[in-house]
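We treat protein structure as text, and this decision shapes the records that our systems exchange. This encoding replaces a full spatial description with a residue-level series of whole-number codes. Below, we set out a record of this kind in full and without editing:
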Amino acid sequence: MDEYTAELVFSDPGADDQRVLKRHRARHTKSRNGCYPCKSRRVKCDELQPACGTCSSRGEPCFYPRPRIPSKKLSRPRREEVENNDGSLSTDSFAPSDGGQPLGLIQPLGISATLPAIFSSQSNHGRADLAMNDLKLLQFFHLHTAKQMSLHPRRTMVWQRIIPELGTKHGYLMHLLLALGGIHMITHQAEANKASGIEDSDTVDLEIVVEHHQRGLEGFRQEVSCISPSNAELVFAGSLLLVGFAFASLKVQDLNLPNGHLEEMKRAAGNLSSENDILHLNWLYLNRGISSVINDQWHVLKASRLRQMVVFPHGDEFWQELPFDASSSRLSYCSPRLFKFGEGASQAVANLKASLNVFEHTRNDLSSCSGTPTSQPSPPMTLDWIVGAHSGAIDVLDKVYSRIISVLRCATTEIPAGAEIQLDFEEAAILSWPIQLPGPFLTSLEKSENDCFHGRSLIILAHFYLVNTLVDTWFMRGSFEREILKLNALIGALNESHLSTFMLWPNDIMKLSPT
């Protein structure tokens, strides 16, 4: 050994060969590249690797500092050779000739993580440039969007960790995630500008958000076309992102583009002011699409990392209707809109049921209403078919309204905060009404020349939309007030005066503050 000299001393020449190692310090020159343990003990290190003799004999771990690479200042001509056109130094000039690690660069920590390909684009010089707008969207999603998607801590964790983790591994989910964060950023900035009266456009362009949404939707369609237990979690995550975007997009007029039936809808509602006032139901069908995913892959999703999004603690029996006592309810502490809703919800459903009974007893078939249907859905649009469709929808409406009233009745011994009521709304799943609607009712929402039938369908839909105006989340706040105004215009254009009376209660609630 270089560090120590050893001398063997035998305690007894005739005894067993029991040897005792006696060490003493040897002469040495100063060590400059020794290990950290020897340097800390201020002793000479023999600089053997991977472990020096001292650390080996002491049975201690041995580790060395990184070798120092002498820096050499490049001459001016050489420096000009390695500069890119933008003035930055090219990292290629630091690459070693033997293919090893680049010289003079700080090496990253050994973390197994990759940056999704959508965050970089190849420039003309062949270098990967970070897409700053995408990073801006991702930052906004993490700081704001994910935290505000749910009031339940475990569901919030799904939005903050699990869905982004899936997005880093599947590009189309990352596109949908960035689109959701982008639409939140745009609507949030619009609300801030309206409140302050100062125009501030510190957001990404809507075109960038739409591009992410379209690219994500393209990948989602490919995934859902071959749904199976192996990708059910991915499809469900994509569905959640798409529905959140659909809700929020109702507040952005530029996203409510006219469809192929624009002229027909304009003729049916001649007093609508613009193309943006056309009623859109795409979000409704998209929301119902989630139910098919859940039903088909329930055994997988209930045990997956997204189980918090499909499992709720209380079933329908928990929300069975009870006698309502306004004096012992939360109504005294609710917002004006919730107070008005709690007072009149039961009567509103009763009025709809009464009108349905009158309508059912009118056995003049379609002659009791103006217009004659030119096209019949399947099954044929007869009086019995329409009554059945409306009856099924009103039954769902009654159940959802009863759940809301039950929430307002709970926790009577203390003053509840608004967040508590909103959390109970989430637990009661009051936004699940789209997946409970009967199929024939959805068909009745399609435009037909039978104004009376179509008008009644729109009235029932407006009562459902009131449920969504009670939920105070960023993606629901203000989204459906404008949709109810559209329904008002459509119903008014039908020239059926008796139908407008059923919109009086929804319109009164709309005039009140939601907070």
